[in-house]
Inverse folding.
């Protein structure tokens, strides 16, 4: 029987995430801090598994990608060179009746999405293109007029009484010195990429890397978002997983296409279906890019970006070279077939892949959260009910297996504890004794545990257990000695890597 999968709304996922220890509102006892969240016991395990999977896919599977962990605080001139001090802005607009503030581009993007959902994608594309043109020209008055022409209303006041559109810098700043009040401000980094760029030569020389090569990093970034909503999709404190791939000028578009395809395969291998993923080429390119595309996932609130792939040219290294007055060049002794001579010194071009760890977490959670209709019992006792579960890929599930003694006597708890102790060095496992075994199965389904191991009286006789599978609910009898290999095969990252 094929289970009937029901569509769920974001509010159901938010409620589930809190109840089962995935995500909590930060400082909730003080009514919370807007757009800041904490990861609970199951959430931190899932997020760490996703980060580790990404890290190993980058640095372990590719012999020419290495990692770093750069500091959050950087010299202020870093952000002058990168363009963030002068140009890291979002267009904001206020509604005079509701006093609410919005990102002007988001209002227009949502209107374009309405057209697309209503069966008029051409009109949506035209609106997006016009918005891109106006923002590229920094025509903020034109952006406001476009909002008015499209009859976009404030969701709260239901009016179109808009202020002028203004640019809003997204960087957080803090005092750079505890003793010098005149010291320049130090910024909380708005992206992790610059820590890679300023360490380009340090990494290249110390790791003896030869172009093309990449530098990967996972780290926190901070943005003072105008509109922070949709749960953990847009936050003021978030985590990025980025890889900057340094290439010879003139080869960047070939590598751009290579990484574009590679990164989509990663998301599909993780369990995000191809039908719910799409590429979205940027209508407005960032100041550093000559090509850019987003990988979007269809969340309950529509298609939104989870990863960006950008061809950043030599902008970043070139800017740092100019402002620091320290050469950021690589000597390439490979032979140029056109001239018969080495390529020599040049500032490398960069292809970037940047994943939001929190957005990937949310996409994984949204895809895994399912409600299905199942049938239990036989004959007159047969009944149907709705089962809620998380169909997480076993490789990233917070708990790999739960061990259940059938009853709390007759030596079964002691036997279950013995199995727990044998497995806990290899996997995150839990042992539960309370409640009926059916309720214990349900609890593990709700957090995505792929296997439940039942210890019964037969176990004491022949050292076999019953393994119950989360997705199919099928049960398999096997020797205790086979558990480590059986579970290990299913939860290995290799199951994901084989699909890349």
């Amino acid at each position: 029987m094929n289970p009937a999968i029901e569509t769920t709304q974001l509010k159901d996922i938010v409620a589930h995430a809190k109840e089962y220890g995935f995500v909590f509102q930060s400082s909730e006892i003080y009514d919370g801090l807007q757009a800041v969240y904490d990861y609970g016991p199951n959430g931190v395990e899932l997020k760490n598994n996703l980060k580790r999977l990404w890290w190993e896919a980058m640095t372990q599977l590719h012999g020419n990608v290495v990692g770093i962990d750069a500091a959050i605080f950087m010299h202020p001139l870093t952000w002058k060179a990168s363009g963030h001090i002068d140009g890291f802005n979002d267009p904001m607009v206020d509604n005079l009746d509701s006093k609410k503030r919005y990102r002007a581009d988001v209002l227009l993007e949502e209107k374009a999405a309405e057209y697309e959902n209503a069966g008029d994608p051409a009109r949506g594309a035209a609106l997006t293109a016009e918005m891109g043109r106006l923002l590229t020209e920094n025509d903020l008055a034109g952006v406001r007029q476009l909002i008015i022409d499209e009859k976009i209303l404030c969701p709260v006041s239901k009016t179109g009484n808009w202020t002028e559109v203004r640019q809003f810098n997204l960087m957080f700043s803090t005092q750079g010195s505890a003793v010098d009040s005149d010291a320049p401000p130090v910024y909380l980094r708005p992206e992790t990429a610059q820590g890679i760029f300023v360490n380009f030569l340090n990494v290249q020389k110390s790791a003896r890397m030869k172009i093309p090569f990449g530098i990967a990093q996972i780290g926190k970034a901070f943005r003072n978002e105008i509109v922070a909503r949709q749960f953990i999709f847009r936050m003021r404190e978030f985590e990025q997983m980025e890889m900057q791939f340094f290439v010879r000028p003139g080869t960047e578009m070939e590598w751009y296409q290579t990484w574009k395809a590679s990164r989509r395969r990663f998301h599909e291998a993780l369990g995000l279906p191809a039908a719910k993923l799409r590429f979205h080429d940027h209508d407005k390119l960032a100041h550093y890019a000559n090509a850019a595309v987003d990988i979007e996932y269809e969340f309950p609130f529509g298609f939104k970006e989870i990863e960006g792939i950008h061809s950043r040219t030599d902008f970043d290294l070139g800017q740092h070279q100019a402002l620091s007055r320290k050469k950021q060049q690589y000597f390439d002794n490979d032979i140029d077939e056109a001239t018969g001579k080495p390529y020599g010194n040049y500032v490398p071009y960069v292809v970037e892949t940047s994943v939001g760890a929190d957005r990937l977490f949310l996409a994984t959670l949204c895809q895994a959260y399912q409600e299905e209709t199942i049938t239990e019992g036989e004959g007159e006792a047969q009944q149907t009910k709705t089962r809620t579960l998380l169909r997480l890929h076993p490789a990233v599930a917070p708990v790999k297996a739960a061990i259940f003694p059938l009853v709390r006597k007759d030596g079964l708890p002691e036997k279950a504890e013995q199995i727990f102790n044998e497995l806990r060095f290899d996997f995150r496992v839990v042992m539960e004794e309370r409640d009926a075994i059916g309720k214990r199965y349900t609890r593990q389904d709700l957090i995505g545990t792929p296997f439940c191991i039942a210890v019964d009286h037969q176990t004491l006789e022949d050292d076999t257990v019953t393994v119950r599978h989360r997705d199919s609910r099928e049960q398999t009898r096997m020797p205790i000695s086979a558990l480590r290999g059986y579970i290990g095969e299913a939860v290995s990252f290799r199951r994901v890597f084989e699909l890349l």
Notes: The chain has three domains: 10-88+170-365, 89-167, 392-497. The radius of gyration is 26 Å. The CA atoms of residues 82 and 316 lie 6 Å apart.
